[in-house]
Amino acid sequence: MTLPTELQPRAIPELVNEYISVTPKSRALHERLSKSLAGGETRVVTYFEPYPIAIASAEGPRLVDYDENTYIDLVNNMASLVHGHRYPPVVEAVAEAMQLLGTVQAGSHRYLVEFSELLVARYPAFERVRFTNSASEAAILALRIARRATGREKLVIFDGAYHGMGSEFNDAHPNVVKVPFNQPTALADVVDETVGAVMVESFLGHAGVVPPEPEFLHTVQSIAESAGALFVLDETQSLRNDYHAHHGAAGLRPSMVIMGKSVGGGLPVGVLGGRADLVELASASRPDGLRHSGTFNGNVLTTAAGYQAVVALSPSAISTLNSRAAHLTQQLESEGRRLGLPISVTRSGSTMCVHFRDTAPTNAAEALARNDFARWFHIAAMLEGVCTIRGGRLNLSTVLSDADMRTVEGALCRALARLAEMDVADGC
Asked: Considering the entire predicted model, what is its pTM?
């Protein structure tokens, strides 16, 4: 039997109505919140139809909503909680730091020193670092430094990339050029002596976990350097994949690297690291330095938590994450084929995306051309006790056990079966 690429009209209400029936308190809280908070949410990526769950408690790899439904969490706050919820070393470090220094100080402190030194020692591209409160801010700072260092205003980025909420990365801008991911010829056509920086993710994260083709990032680096532009690598999502981050494992030489998410241990964080001559342009000790500040940059709690999170991302922990993700990828593809679903699962390290298409996407246009299977897979997964990101994305945490992984595998396979069975039930 060949299944269609769209769910039948009766299937969607059936799935959604079941979700509504088991989450009435989440619905009530969303309706209440919508009266004070625009849209009932303050982060577009956390919203989904008909409404998101309201979380009552969380610990380790599990969430409990206000209706007392329990889920294994494969959202992990959009991959920032690589060690799950309430990770004891982070909780203890934050409690100790708060007792010693409070939440934030207008000066250097022990945790700032230790975290800075750890990052410079661990990541090959980091000769100097600057802290911000998000990877969005770090990307904006990288662009400011690139323009100051090169005297060039133009930026080249890739379709589907997410570098945060800066206007240059989201809105039409005369000095920003976008090209398709994994197409080096298109990049070479636009990078010239007017380009100050080429900024690229190690893999397209928000656009469906699209990995780079072999040698693509090396080619991006070469094209940028040949034109005198800076090569800026965004490792916000990929830093968890290798002990020395992706650039270290792949032998890349980025001018600057952007980090966020899991590097902060679950607290707001952004890190810009790179060549000393570049990052020092943001130093207050330079008469001609860029003005870079932020009330909460390098705050006590984030640096204490971040230190513990990075230390716990050991080679063995990363290896376990990646091998588990590879196995889960194989199992989902195998089960999808058995059910007759069009399916491919893309993966970078321990981050994955389930695509309902016969071949894996290689760029954002292919990855984002989603159908109703992709639109509703996360609802089917939640009904089986697993939280995923809408559109099929999911990521693993270090606190998942082997038993948890077996539970995840069974639940996601049942979610796939739900989608297939609804089409079969509707006469397809």
From this structure: 0.94
